[in-house]
Amino acid sequence: MEKLPPLNAIKAFEVAARSGSFTLAASELGVSSAAVSQQIRNLETWFGKQLFVRTGNRITLTDAGHAIYPQTARALGDIAAIGQRMLEGGLRTRLVVSVPFSLAELWLAPRLAALLEAFPHMAIDVRAEDDPIDLVRQNVDLRISYGDYHYPALRMVRLVHDDVLPVCAPEFWQRHGNSDTGLVGLHESLFIHTNWGPNYASHPSWADWFAACGGSRSPDPSHGRRVGLSSLAIASARLGLGIALGQRVMAQADLEAGRLIALSSVSVRLGHPYCAFMPPAKADRADVAALVRLLVNTAPTTRG
Amino acid sequence: MEKLPPLNAIKAFEVAARSGSFTLAASELGVSSAAVSQQIRNLETWFGKQLFVRTGNRITLTDAGHAIYPQTARALGDIAAIGQRMLEGGLRTRLVVSVPFSLAELWLAPRLAALLEAFPHMAIDVRAEDDPIDLVRQNVDLRISYGDYHYPALRMVRLVHDDVLPVCAPEFWQRHGNSDTGLVGLHESLFIHTNWGPNYASHPSWADWFAACGGSRSPDPSHGRRVGLSSLAIASARLGLGIALGQRVMAQADLEAGRLIALSSVSVRLGHPYCAFMPPAKADRADVAALVRLLVNTAPTTRG
DNA sequence: CAGGCTCCATAAGTTTTTCTTGGGCAATCC
DNA sequence: GGATTGCCCAAGAAAAACTTATGGAGCCTG
Asked: Which CATH architecture has domain B95-160+272-297?
């Protein structure tokens, strides 16, 4: 930023220009008129320009004085407004929540809607981004993270240790399913495979799931449908494009609504739980605590 | 004018917040770090609120500190600019443009870039604020206003009568959309509702849009996402957080780039046009006229 | 026209604010 | 664990802001 003119003198200028009198300005500022006179003189010296014409015992703004008055009044008005807001305690805190992309729509959005219903005036910003993030720098109040290890210095609340189970659309199972052979007898092209990519812990595979059933089948991903996001796997299943190993937290609403059916009660746990992280200084704020409570209370009941 | 906070302390706050360090701020201000520390402390005492969290030998802005920083920087920047102008003796005319918040980023910025390409030495200030404003007092050369009624004494040029149409991210529609049922069959939580608040003319609602299609659906805003700015609705849609009724002037770039898709050709007009207002004495200035010409020429072609 | 009143300017002195210095404390890094 | 870095505090120094008394100029009234 450029060098600032003397701010006390700027204040005196604004009041003098507005009132057209150093005496009136002095009264408003609570100082002597000589003090105002000196401050104006200081400012004129600093600028190298006259701001007022003195005619005997009267003052008139010069053109230069006229030119800078509006912007000066505005800037000082803005600063006064800041002060007013702070003194009135009128700063309404905005809750900034950060979630992984895959959780934003299917899991967090409904929960935020519930929170907003309970607290209609709560201001919430939602950021969708993957770990790791800088909570402090980004002024994030609560980060939901896959795993409990990214933010060791922060306050942590464990939300849910999710698992995956085979789900598909009801009509899909009527058309392709077989109660006698179950999933074992299905064609390879009907499986939806979720691959989080090389930078992330591995999503449980169909081979993992069959192993958990005591079987040995291992459907080949190159013969099925492959998606890179858990939420996309759920959506594909809902659309009747196949059978997915869907994360329970994301599939729950669809299961309850009957848009998806679970094909087995066997599930495989994810490698890590989902946890909420908060900067310690913010963890006891009423809005943060309310959201955490809601997230904990609405976590799905998992088996095992 | 309300009582001002201590201006010297405000100056120290701005530099400390910007640099994130009392030591760096001291260097910039040409004083000792202890002086900066004391000024910040003075200001916190005056406000009755903490502006920085001190952690050992580090500082972090508090929410309150974050909240007031942008406006503080702006106000001090304005004062510095006044000083600069006076020292340079350059009463060089600056084009001051004022726009509503929602138009600043998505609509005006690209147009100003085009103007600066044609006139590289043009000095432009852009202010973002909502109606009504005092153009004379704030020395604004051109105000873009929603509606044609705020400034009856000023020269007016009508720019565009915008409309809204349903938009969302392409991947969002692939995941949630259904060509057979279209928007009618969508879950209520997927709609993004724009509410300008009680002080402004109403933004067209989803119910308005469905009525324009000859339907009767009326998505309930309490079940969807609510945003208070048209530009935020566009951004939320682009991020895949739902389907928004997006203003064409703001959505145009995203639509052309494929980041958003229009889900229907049906649109609903806003209640008022956007107009440009100028004090009569400034309307024929070359820079003002050039900007108005550009804005008129690049207005989107609207349907019906 | 002269005198009184009002208001800005100046100089000298006083008061308040701002800044410096030295030492203490805590976080971070090697 | 030691060294380094950076914020905090107290006491004192320096600078800025203010006051008081007096002078000069414009305006109004008798």
From this structure: 3-Layer(aba) Sandwich (3.40)
**Is the fold of A94-161+272-297 the same as that of A163-269?**
yes
For residue B242, what is the DSSP state? -
How distant is C1' of D23 from CA of B259, in Å? Answer: 75
Has residue B48 got a pLDDT over 50? Answer: yes
Q: Which of A156-165, A232-241, B39-48, B193-202 has the lowest mean pLDDT?
A: B193-202
In chain A, residues with a C-beta closer than 8 Å to the C-beta of B3 are 80, 83
Q: Average pLDDT in the A179-202 region?
A: 74
Distance from CA of B157 to the nearest CA of A (A): 25
From chain B, the residues in CB contact with A1 under 8 A are: 14-15, 73, 76-77, 80
What's the pLDDT score for residue A24?
92
The residue whose two tokens read 């946890």 is A275
| Three-state SS at B212 | helix
Start-to-end CA distance of chain B, whole Å, equals 48
Model confidence pLDDT, tens digit, residues B150-169: 888 888 888 888 889 999 98
Q: Which of A100-114, A144-158, B177-191 has the lowest mean pLDDT?
A: A100-114
CA distances B277 to A207, B149, B159, B270, Å, are: 68, 10, 10, 19
Measure CB to CB from residue A75 to each of B49, B67, B79 and give the nearest one: B79
Domain A94-161+272-297 has CATH 3.40.50.1220: no
Evaluated on CA atoms A98, A102, A107, A110, the torsion sign reads positive
pLDDT greater than 90 at residue B294: no
Instruction: Answer for A114: CB within 7 Å of strand D.
Output: no
Task: Give residue for tokens 């004090």.
Answer: B279
Report the pLDDT value the prediction gives residue B15, as an integer from 0 to 100. Answer: 93
- Where in chain A are the domains? 7-88, 94-161+272-297, 163-269
Distance from CA of B78 to the nearest CA of A (A): 6
Q: Which tokens hold the place of A39?
A: 């401050």
The integer distance in angstroms from the CA atom of A54 to the C1' atom of D27 is 15
Fold held by B7-88? Arc Repressor Mutant, subunit A (1.10.10)
Name the fold adopted by A163-269.
D-Maltodextrin-Binding Protein; domain 2 (3.40.190)
* A279 closest CA partner among A180, A144, A83, A142: A142
**Mean pLDDT, chain A, as a whole number?**
80
Q: How confident is the model at residue A33, as a pLDDT?
A: 93
